[in-house]
Amino acid sequence: MAEEAMTAGPHRVVVLVFDGMKLLDLSGPAEVFSEANRFGADYRLSIVSADGSPVRSSIGMLVPADTDARVAAAHDTLVVVGGDALPGSPVDPVLGAAAKELAERAGRVASVCTGAFVLGAAGLLEGRRATTHWQHTATLARRCPSTRVEADALFVKDGSTYTSAGVTAGIDLALALLEEDHGPGLARQVARSLVVYMQRAGGQSQFSASLQGPAPRTPVLRLVQEAVQGDPTADHGLEALAARVRVSPRHLTRMFRAELDTTPMKYVELIRFDMAKALLDAGHNATEAATRSGFSSYESLRRAFARHLGLSPIRYQQRFATTSRES
């Protein structure tokens, strides 16, 4: 399959840019496609603005456009970048029209970060599943009521439409598109060459457990967090945690719900899950990862992976982990 894709001729990628765009939303995916060309792929990248004029990025850098949306040639993939202003105000109708026009000439359509708002304004997300930066998923859901917004996904594929979460998730999305075109071998080569984590699953959370929300204000919860993160293999049952911080189990549960929007046991599982992933990434087998991260058995670890990633630990390691033992 990969060999067939490699001989199918050039793959034309058009990136739609605009004033205030996030530069990394352009450069991240562009580097993936450029690096793939070093290994035998043939991606042809064009930068397009609505009227063909240069645009100024969010960091002030001027980005020239190769052409304008009206005259851009037919292409295989359209990528729409994001920008900080998109969630806070209506999308410029000219930009939305450009996205719609380009999408009609594309084999597949993708957005990075808040670029999903442009797709939504162009009517390209109607009845579809989508995601965007976690800070703006609720806004996207309000703007696009017929769209099922998946708030915690790195990227979402719905038919030939792809949307990704914030900023660096655009690299994950580009790697997934590369894998779709040329197979996992080339995608893995590119990930290693760019020194990035091998493609994370689209359904993987945008966060590690320690990043989900602000640090708790309550000293009791900070003590619990430190205890679990310090030794995930210890006894962190509800009774044990409550006794450790000298509150009742019911009160501890209320505190977790109020400040962290989760339960103590779900939090413990997230910490152990993150540790197990790190062990798998380092080349440990699934049974060893389960034991060292505090899961009672491989089966418990398998159920946790199914809940958080939708795949087994073994499948995760085969597909996504870049390990030192492989090097």
Q: How would you explain this protein's 3D organization?
A:
This protein is an alpha/beta fold. It folds into two domains: 2-193, Rossmann fold (3-Layer(aba) Sandwich); 209-319, Arc Repressor Mutant, subunit A (Orthogonal Bundle). It is 45% helix and 13% strand. It has 14 helices and eleven strands. The chain has helices at 2-6, 23-38, 93-104, 115-121, 137-143, 169-182, 184-193, 219-230, 238-245, 249-260, 264-281, 286-292, 298-308, 313-319, and strands spanning 11-16, 43-49, 55-56, 62-63, 67-68, 75-80, 106-111, 129-130, 148-149, 155-158, 161-164. The strands form three sheets. Strands 5-2-1-6-7-11-10 form a seven-stranded mixed beta sheet, sandwiched between helices. Strands 3-4 form a two-stranded antiparallel sheet. Strand 6, helix 3 and strand 7 form a beta-alpha-beta unit. Helix 3 packs across helix 4 (115-121). The chain starts with a helix and ends in an 8-residue tail after the last helix. The model is unreliable at 1-7, 209-214 and 322-327 (pLDDT under 50).
Write a brief caption for the model.
The protein folds into two domains: 192 residues, Class I glutamine amidotransferase (GATase) domain (Rossmann fold, 3-Layer(aba) Sandwich); 111 residues, Arc Repressor Mutant, subunit A (Orthogonal Bundle), CATH 1.10.10. 45% of the residues lie in helices and 13% in strands.
- What's the CATH class of the largest domain, please? Alpha Beta
Shape designation? globular
Compute the number of structural domains: 2
Across the major sheet, the strand order is 5-2-1-6-7-11-10
Compute the number of helices. 14
Order of helices and strands: HEHEEEEEHEHEHEEEHHHHHHHHH
Mind telling me the CATH superfamily name of the largest domain? Class I glutamine amidotransferase (GATase) domain
* Residues in helices, as a percent range: 40-55%
Structural class: alpha/beta
CATH architecture of the largest domain: 3-Layer(aba) Sandwich
